[in-house]
Amino acid sequence: MWCRQARGSVPRRLAAGGGRALAGPSQGAVSGELLRHLEHLALVDFRDREGVERLRGAIRFADRLREVNTDGVEPMDSVLEDRCLYLREDDVTEGNCTKELLNNAREKVEEYFVAPPGILCCPECDLQLVSHNSLFSVR
Amino acid sequence: MLRASLRQVSAALKEGQVTPTELCQRCLSLIKSTKLLNAYITVAEETALKQAEESEKRYRRGQPLGILDGIPIAVKDNFNTAGIETTCASNMLKGYIPPYNATVVQKLQDQGAVLLGKTNLDEFAMGSGSTDGVFGPVRNPWSYSRQYKEKSVPKSDSEREEFKWVITGGSSGGSAAAVSSFTCFAALGSDTGGSTRNPAAHCGVVGLKPTYGLISRHGLIPLVNSMDVPGILTRCVDDAAVVLGSLAGHDPKDSTTIQDVFQPFELPSLPDVSKLCIGIPKEYNAPGLSSEILSVWSKAADLFKNAGAKVIEVSLPHTRYSIVCYHVLCTAEVASNMARFDGLEYGHRSDVNKSTESMYAATRREGFNDVVRGRILSGNYFLLKQNYENYFVKAQKVRRLIANDFVKVFGSGVDILLTPTTLKDAVPYMEFIKEDNRTRSTQDDILTQAANMAGLPAINVPTALSERGLPVGLQFIGRSFQEKQLLTVAKWFEKQVKFPMIQLEEVKGA
């Protein structure tokens, strides 16, 4: 094989440092209230302890960013920030595909997507949110 | 014939040595006999044969559409394909039939390519093993190669055969396995943190990540909008250049594609690297890098030196933060991108009907696996008002520092960077699953992620076999939109190392 002998053309291994976040409280202890808030925002639940531990691990990992000095550095949204991106004319060029769009929906009525009634389940509120069947139409 | 390169088989089609339908049938039959690899989620047999027949008519008339006419290809299952189920290997999209083609799929079809099927991946392209999809893991074809079997410890227990198969890497593992096992001549993958280059390295194929903004993402179900790119997997660098030529260019449907006119190119048959400056970033000698790969990397640097190129050590000081930065930005963008899956307009819908919100929540609980749900929750955490500055914006600032590292290095006269692609060769599946998805991704993406952060083009070139008889690849990173230079260097290197062809034996279980 062509690569039998190495000759040290590549750098020596650097120390495996940089694993500790700076001292100080982590941004946001993960309280029960916060968990409920996140579940509500994401509409996804943690399901069990493992999920919560995973979040804690993710936060600990992300805290390593604090080691980096970013004074005077602008946030970068996109690698194409120096370019003018294409914006098309505000003209209708396609559409009229109601049938295709409705094809993939499970519940529909005529040209409407159908959602269950009401938006919020709010048992703690005095105000009862009552609404009719919510219909979302397709243009 | 199936072992030929894309260009070779295209020439054979043109000369009538083989017909498109024959070729298509052979590929379909090979897909069946290698079913155990689980590389394909959907095999579009009927439509493929129809496309092959159309191609045959064109060849008979002497009017092929181009070099890709009649060539069997595969597409990762997170690209929308009209009329063909697109699942992203998730319960959320099982049964979803898109009403349109992704631009890249359309372009391939317009050139006459024959779409054999949709390949397997990690669910929603989140992962580095192609093991976390609902259709099961993808097996690396090299698990069934003579080269790997010869190096394996002889087993007394026949059951151990099952335990020893190795992963493809991910998340475009199905595409890499499909190309590696000769069932197609090119495949599309996607690359957000290394998802095309990582499996390319483990499966011994060429994996190209183009510059962000070169190829349209319209129809690619998004993971991280600011980093995703369609990836190209082929068996040789020339083939990658051909596919790139047919896909690159501005797309009015994707405003993040640049408007510069793209000139398809052919690579020189005798590339010359003597006038180049190759940079070796010292931070890429990362903890966990196997001594084998280190030695392969070193020898590669020597090859360039002996050819007259200037080879220097460079520094990309923020490399080790790239993975942390990615973790924050990725989960944040994922949290946003996954919000569209609520069961109302497409995809899975739960039977829970108490209220809109509870239906959404149940749908998402049923449709997403733990990995996806975990990332959505983490992402939402980082995007909370009280955390936004300290996590999301901070990560964006670190992103600029990472991108600037590359700008400095390329600005100092370096043309191409040479680095390893993975820390070691492919591990057995049973070992891989001992760690969770995030830990694995953190470990495996470390060498590939920074190129996505900076939007730069990068390519994996299969380089040598490890002591276990498995492929090891090296990565070249180039300047923005300088794919021609990048591929020229890659082609030169490919010719030097003469990576062995896989000696694929029968793919069967114990």
From TrEMBL, chain A:
It is found in: Mitochondrion. Keywords: ATP-binding, Ligase, Mitochondrion, Nucleotide-binding, Protein biosynthesis. One of its GO terms (biological process) is mitochondrial translation. GO terms for cellular component: glutamyl-tRNA(Gln) amidotransferase complex; mitochondrion. It catalyses: L-glutamyl-tRNA(Gln) + L-glutamine + ATP + H2O = L-glutaminyl-tRNA(Gln) + L-glutamate + ADP + phosphate + H(+). Its EC number is 6.3.5.-. Signal peptide: none annotated. Its main location: mitochondrion. Pfam families: GatC. SUPFAM superfamilies: Glu-tRNAGln amidotransferase C subunit (SSF141000). InterPro entries: Asp/Glu-ADT_sf_sub_c, GatC. GO terms for molecular function: ATP binding; glutaminyl-tRNA synthase (glutamine-hydrolyzing) activity. NCBIfam families: gatC. Belongs to the GatC family. Subunit of the heterotrimeric GatCAB amidotransferase (AdT) complex, composed of A (QRSL1), B (GATB) and C (GATC) subunits. Allows the formation of correctly charged Gln-tRNA(Gln) through the transamidation of misacylated Glu-tRNA(Gln) in the mitochondria. The reaction takes place in the presence of glutamine and ATP through an activated gamma-phospho-Glu-tRNA(Gln). This is Glutamyl-tRNA(Gln) amidotransferase subunit C, mitochondrial.
From TrEMBL, chain B:
The active site is at residues 76, 171, 195. It comes from the Eukaryota. GO terms for biological process: glutaminyl-tRNAGln biosynthesis via transamidation; mitochondrial translation; regulation of protein stability. It catalyses: L-glutamyl-tRNA(Gln) + L-glutamine + ATP + H2O = L-glutaminyl-tRNA(Gln) + L-glutamate + ADP + phosphate + H(+). One of its GO terms (molecular function) is ATP binding. GO terms for cellular component: glutamyl-tRNA(Gln) amidotransferase complex; mitochondrion. It is found in: Mitochondrion. Keywords: ATP-binding, Ligase, Mitochondrion, Nucleotide-binding, Protein biosynthesis. Its EC number is 6.3.5.7. Gene3D superfamilies: Amidase signature (AS) domain. InterPro entries: Amidase (IPR000120), Amidase_dom (IPR023631), AS_sf (IPR036928), GatA (IPR004412). It holds the Pfam family Amidase. Residues 26-487 form the Amidase domain. Subunit of the heterotrimeric GatCAB amidotransferase (AdT) complex, composed of A (QRSL1), B (GATB) and C (GATC) subunits. Belongs to the amidase family. GatA subfamily. PANTHER family: GLUTAMYL-TRNA(GLN) AMIDOTRANSFERASE SUBUNIT A, MITOCHONDRIAL, TRANSAMIDASE. Allows the formation of correctly charged Gln-tRNA(Gln) through the transamidation of misacylated Glu-tRNA(Gln) in the mitochondria. The reaction takes place in the presence of glutamine and ATP through an activated gamma-phospho-Glu-tRNA(Gln). This is Glutamyl-tRNA(Gln) amidotransferase subunit A, mitochondrial. It comes from Anser brachyrhynchus (Pink-footed goose).
